[in-house]
Amino acid sequence: MLTIVLALVFLAASLGAYLALSPSDTQLRMAARLGSIRRRQAAAVTPAEEELAKPFSERVLRPFFDQIYRRVLRVTPAGMKEKVRRRLNEAGRPMDTGRFLGLKAMLALTLGLLGTLLAVARLGSGPPLNRFVLPAVLLALGSFLPEFWLSSQVTKRRKALERALPDVLDLLSVSVEAGLGFDGAVQKVAEKFGEPVSGEFTSYLKEVRLGKSRADALRNLADRTELTDMRTFTAAVIQAEQLGASLAKVLRMQADGLRVKRKQRAEEKAMKAPVKMLFPLVMFIFPTLFIVILGPVGIHVMEAFK
């Protein structure tokens, strides 16, 4: 027993000494951080070596294409640049104006050059007019494809905003009725919802914090989204602020109205569904049914006439 007790005492003392002398989690994190700093300092390189260490795409391709984008943007008319900028804002700024115009020009020129090479190779001895048809078609296609992609992005973003707007107004009205200010309620919306709602309302909050009036920031929000429901909502909030009306009541009325409109849109789509199903029924389902039903009859008729 004495031996066991001494062994247990020795183990307890060893464990206590280990726990007392071992570094804490904070010390371990600090040591790891200092080690990483020392390794970076030991591996310090000159600016030239650091530049050469970058991938080829960042060293050569990206500056080359950026230069093309800037030149295309410089020669583009101001009206077209403003139109593209507004469309990109409606799509959530997937890229800047110069990059979009540059990619559009490069794609159109690439497809046009490809069409020219194909036309010369295949129609070298044909009429001269035929040699210009394929390059013109591919050139137009290269110019149209980026616009089609941008339109699809705008439509997708508008539909997402339109679907989420009644829930957004519900949260705004509940937050204002609970005692928050309008900007605080908007902050709650930006935290609770994902894109594109959070991005648009975060932009509104940034504009207000930078010194814009609430009315101007709301108008910019409506201009970016280009939604009728959003324009109605922002106009109601601006009017309530100017006239001193109850903002919570206005938001509640707007939320109720948008919920009714969403229900009506769903009913409208449900009423259109039978008409939209008619084409696939006629083209794909009815022929299959005719084959299954009339196929055996046709086989028996053919055998009878043999």
How is this structure best summarized?
The chain has helices at residues 2-21, 25-42, 47-52, 56-75, 78-90, 97-122, 130-177, 182-192, 197-209, 214-225, 228-243, 247-305.
Give a structural overview:
This protein has 306 residues and is mainly alpha-helical. Among the domains are: 61-157, no CATH class; 160-266, Up-down Bundle (Receptor-associated Protein). 86% of the residues lie in helices and 0% in strands. It is built from twelve helices and no strands. The protein has helices at residues 2-21, 25-42, 47-52, 56-75, 78-90, 97-122, 130-177, 182-192, 197-209, 214-225, 228-243, 247-305. The protein is extended and about 105 Å long. The chain starts with a helix and ends with a helix. The model has no long low-confidence stretch (mean pLDDT 79).
Notable characteristics:
306 residues, Receptor-associated Protein, single chain, mainly alpha
| Beta-strand content bin | under 5%
In whole angstroms, how far apart are the ends? 109 Å
CATH superfamily of the domain at 160-266: Type II secretion system (T2SS), domain F
CATH architecture grouping of the domain at 160-266 = Up-down Bundle
Number of helices: 12
CATH topology of the domain at 160-266: Receptor-associated Protein
What is the average of the pLDDT values? 79
The rough form would be described as extended
Classified by CATH, the class of the domain at 160-266 is: Mainly Alpha
**Poorly predicted ranges (pLDDT <50, ≥5 residues)?**
none
The biggest beta sheet is recorded as: none
- Number-wise, the strands total 0
Helix content: over 70%
Based on the structure, what is the oligomeric state of the protein chains?
single chain
Structural class: mainly alpha
**SSE series:** HHHHHHHHHHHH
Q: What is the C-alpha radius of gyration, as a whole number of Å? A: 34 Å
